[in-house]
Amino acid sequence: MSRRVIALFTAGLSVGLVSAAGAQLPAVSPEQAEAGLKVANVQIEPGALEITRGDTARARAVLQDRTGNPVTGAQVLIWSPSPAVRGTNPVTGETIVVWGRQPGNATVSVFVQVPEDSGSFQGLKGLRQVGAIPVTVKDWDVARIEIAEPVYRPYVGTTFKLTARPMTVNDSEHESATVTWRSDKPGVVSITPSGVVTPMKAGRAALVASTENGVTAEYTMTAVTNPTATLEIAPKASSARTGDVVRLDVRALDKSGKPVDGLAMAYSVFGIDSAGAHVYRDGTFVADYPGAYRVVASTGGRSAEAVVEVSRRPPPTPAKKVGQGVRTEVATSDLWVFTGKDGRDYAYTGTHAQGGGQRMFVWDVTDPSDIQLVDSVVVDARVVNDVKVNADASWAIITREGASNRQNGIVVLDMADPAHPTVQAELTDQMTSGIHNVWIQGNIVYAVNDGTSAINILDLTDPTNPKHAGQWELRPGDSNKSLHDVWSDGQYLYVSYWNDGLVILDISGSHGGTPTKPAFVSSIAYSQGNSHVAWRYGDYVFVGDEIFGCAECVNGPRGYIHVIDVKNIEQPKEVAKFDVPEAGAHNIWVEDGVLYIAYYQGGLRIVDVSGELRGDLYRQGRQIGWIPTAAGEGEAVVPNSPMAWGPQPFKGHIFVSDMNSGLWAVQHERPRPLVP
Amino acid sequence: MVRALGAAGALGALAITACATHPAASAGAAPDTAARDTRYWVYVANESSDLISRVRFAPPGELVEEKTIPIGIMPADLDGAHGVAVSPTGEHWYVSLAHGTPFGKIWKFAAGADTLIDSLTVGLFPASMAVTPDGTGLFAVNFNLHGKHVPSSVSAVFTPFMNESKRITTCVMPHGSKVSHDGWRHYSTCMMSDQLVEISTERQAVTRRFLLTPGQERLLAVDDLGAHAMHSGGARCKPTWVTVSPDDTRLYVPCNGHAEIIELDAVSLEVQRRFPTGKAPYNADVSPDGTTLVVTLKGAQAVAVFDLATGRETRIPTTQPITHGVAISPDSRYAFISNEAIGAVRGTVDVIDLATKERVASVALRHQPGGIAFWKMEGWERQRAAAR
Question: What ipTM score was computed for the predicted complex, to two decimals?
Answer without folding.
Answer: 0.86
